[in-house]
């Protein structure tokens, strides 16, 4: 009888833990204060940027909403995390470090910028464990991640940069295919998948499913099986997620989406959540639209290009991701004051009344956003992290349809309803 009482007490007082999440940390090593912010290239705010038309607006101290940031602006977020290290010294990093313009990239510049960022991250966060997940922009050429062994040169570099954070076993699978599993002190496992292989724009993505890159999917299946046998739980992290962009276009290879969903459903007792980045905006995806068995939370970006820089603090236990709090840097204020001031944007429990961020509660949020104008207004306020974002006409329906469908055909049918 006493044993049953003890188990009941443990269940009632489940632990709570915290972890930081940063995503899309694009910085531009060519950023120059005074460089033209609207130019004839993809990436602007450079010393040699040529103004487009008659728009002579220039970049300021902290950056510009049309450009990727100087390194110091991104690193001010790391300083904020460091100042709150008593909460958590674990950071999930959903990567994408390199800027957008592949025409201004070289293999050596990418490697130099990645090494610079890794070194600075370690300097700003001493004693922290950083858990990376590879982005599509972290390769040369951008978004064209080749399957191993053709991408071995980059995987070897990632393994070298990450050895301060990961164990030898974790480095071994990183070197094999860019993926690993890491157990937090709380006992929750973080599974990092290399989803940039499957980017729909990647000419190599069509090699799947005939080729399993670095045997990652086979490893993923076996790893989930072992966790079930041990009675352990996992949070999945990846730079890109399955599903659709807000435009209704596929984000990743549809066969990977199919296989990932099958595994997610089969091991729903093991997986307590999925965190991703890539889209630079506030969002989530769920499937199916009603009574979902799958959901992923899309994290906003550290880059100010199109939004205010932001990061998150997640709270979780062994059953759910409970909530997150978003913090952001008001770029206009930063430029006016020449001062990096990170402040709270919102918390999911306070803002939407969500009990947790499990599949059912994400489904309830989706229903609210469809039917509650106040909830939708809140969502749009946060969509670009406190930066005004227009959504007129059929935009609301399009965005909601993109979040509840995994295929373009389903999106098209949703829009017609």
UniProtKB/TrEMBL annotation:
Any GO CC annotation of this UniProt entry: extracellular space
Keywords annotated in UniProt: Glycoprotein, Hydrolase, Secreted
Sequence similarity: Belongs to the acid sphingomyelinase family.
InterPro entries: ASM_C (IPR045473), Calcineurin-like_PHP (IPR004843), Metallo-depent_PP-like (IPR029052)
PANTHER family listed in its UniProt record: SPHINGOMYELIN PHOSPHODIESTERASE
Domain of life the protein comes from: Eukaryota
UniProt key word Hydrolase: yes
Name the UniProt record assigns to this protein: Sphingomyelin phosphodiesterase, putative
